[in-house]
Amino acid sequence: MPPVSTRLAVPADVHALGSLFNAYRQFYQQPDDLALATAFIGERVAKRESVILVAEDPAGVLLGFTQIYPSLCSVLAARIGVLYDLFVQPQARTRGVGRALLQAAAAYGKAKGMQRLDLTTARTNAKAQSLYESLQWQRDDIFLAYNLDLRG
């Protein structure tokens, strides 16, 4: 297995990231829309509204990404990060790509003074849950998450 490296995404990654983000959205039953995915990711990069870490092989091919939105926690009175997206290309799974991205995210958060990273995942995504727990992420059994759809 070739080694995997992680780094911060740069504007030149937007096209490849758009493709990965489109596949990520499809994983969550969203329609295939490469233009929308690329525009969304491009805007996050251009406006620096999120932190995107990518994993790549030695040839520079992107294998996966994670996206962190810097936020605040009122209870902690501290900076936190919301790790909203984590995606690894299907052919690169089981190669340690997701683990490398999560470790890079934790290192980034610590370096930026974040007190915590939060994430949510589908209840049925057992493989991801196993990975998170192997890296000491703690499942929240106290709080429930709610959403309010404001689109209509």
Structure characterization notes:
The chain is α+β, with helices and mostly antiparallel strands and 152 residues long. The chain has one domain (5-134): Aminopeptidase, CATH 3.40.630. The protein has helices spanning 14-27, 34-47, 97-111, 126-134, and strands at residues 5-8, 51-56, 62-73, 78-88, 117-118. A five-stranded mixed β-sheet has the order 1-2-3-4-5. Strand 4, helix 3 and strand 5 (117-118) form a beta-alpha-beta unit. Helix 1 crosses helix 2 (34-47). The longest helix is centred in the C-terminal third of the chain and has 15 residues, at 97-111. The N and C termini lie far apart (48 Å). The relative contact order is 0.15.
Report a brief summary of the structure.
With 152 residues, the chain is α+β, with helices and mostly antiparallel strands. It has helices at 14-27, 34-47, 97-111, 126-134; strands at 5-8, 51-56, 62-73, 78-88, 117-118. It has one domain (5-134): Aminopeptidase (3-Layer(aba) Sandwich), CATH 3.40.630.
